[in-house]
Amino acid sequence: MTRHYDLITIGVAVVDSIIRGFDPHPVSASGYRAESGTLNAGGEAVNQAVAAAKLGMKTGILCSLGNDAAGDLIAAHLEKEGVDTSLIRRDSAHSTPVATIFAHEDGTRQSITNSAHRYNFHPENMTEAFSDTRAILLGSLFRAPFDDPGIIREVLHFAKCHGILTFADTKLPNFRKLTLDDLKDSLGLIDYITPNEDEARYCTKNEDPAEMADVFLSLGVRNVLIKLGAKGLFFKNRDMAVALPALPVDAIDATGAGDNLAAGFASEILRGSSIEDALRFANACGAICTTAVGAGTALKSREQVLNFLKTRQ
Q1: Closest by Cα among 80, 141, 137, 102 to 18
Q2: Model pLDDT for residues 299-308, shown as the tens digit of each residue
Q3: CA-CA distance, 19 to 35, in Å (whole number)?
Q4: Which of 44, 168, 217, 257 could pair covalently with 289 via S-S, beta carbons 3.0-4.6 A apart?
């Protein structure tokens, strides 16, 4: 069956105000300095959609934006990168979320969210918008709109009933605290879940990646990919386990690296690649992302990723 989209990402869209090289020592009573400050379209759904489109997937995004300058910035960025924006909902009643991110010299980061991130649009009421796709990527469980067990269940149930492959990324909860127990009716509907190490630790209360994966598998998730940052990644399903070390790069900013990795993995699975090849490709996407400021800057194309991998074999 031919579908219009390869992948639709569903979730939060934000503007990231990225401050690099912040000096905590004030130069005046109210003034501070930093190496640079940039505005970037971000949020898990945006980062993942842009990466997938660059990798050659016919990609759409289902999200909500305010009728404001921040929303215009995100929409323009998505269109520029080849993402179909026809499914975006614009809402005059809510502002587009803006996050402040401090990027450190080692590539790590800290972010500040605000009440606008609580805005919970309702994709469960828009299921026809993603009925014509091969796969959906939820970005991310535990954050709006997927901090509501009912919404998660309805979206995933619709997808599975329509033969749509389901990928789910995760985040640590911020405004609403959920646990895996809250999602027990939905986890069996997830084909691939992609938490990072901190998120998997929060969900499973385990420290070892294999044990983390076993918890997800025991609850019905079919495949588990744990993003380990500078330590690489770990994958497990009922038939195999794969651990890959991180690929060496000069990391500048880790913003969106996990989103690029998740999108890279999904795109290769949709191309029919083996699990092992998809993991290697995804690992490279995450590494490449860290070499420039902003989640959608460094990754350019599938050919770039394949050439990158050739230099590291």
Answers
A1: 102
A2: 999 999 999 9
A3: 8
A4: 257
